[in-house]
Amino acid sequence: MKIYSCETHINRALDEFVAKEETFPNMEPVKNDIKLSTTCEYCEQVPMYVVTNVQSDTTSS
Ligand SMILES: [Zn+2]
């Protein structure tokens, strides 16, 4: 699971992640190239954070 979120909706993204995954979320800043092609999950803003599983960096998505 991966949720892109702007600054406005980051709390909602974290809440939703915890509700669905029942595990502690990892919050990372979004890379610039991803900002160009992706929007916030909840609005049309440029995403500032991506919420993922903590282990997501070592597993294929
Ligand atoms: Zn948003």
Primary descriptors:
alpha+beta; three-stranded antiparallel beta sheet; 2 helices; 23% strand
Describe this structure in words.
This protein has one domain. Helices cover 30% and strands 23% of the residues. It is built from 2 helices and 3 strands. By secondary structure, the protein is α+β, with helices and mostly antiparallel strands. It has a 3-stranded antiparallel sheet with strand order 1-3-2, with helices on one face. The structure holds zinc ion. Zinc ion binds next to loops.
- How much of the sequence is in beta strands? 15-25%
Bound molecules: zinc ion
Pairing-aware structural class of the strands and helices?
A: alpha+beta
Strand order of the largest sheet: 1-3-2
> What is the count of helical runs?
2
| Shape type | globular
First and last CA, distance: 8 Å
Give the count of structural domains: 1
Q: In angstroms, what is the radius of gyration?
A: 11 Å
Order of helical and strand elements: EHEHE
Look at the structure and give the mean pLDDT: 91
Total strands: the figure is 3
Biggest sheet layout: 3 strands, antiparallel
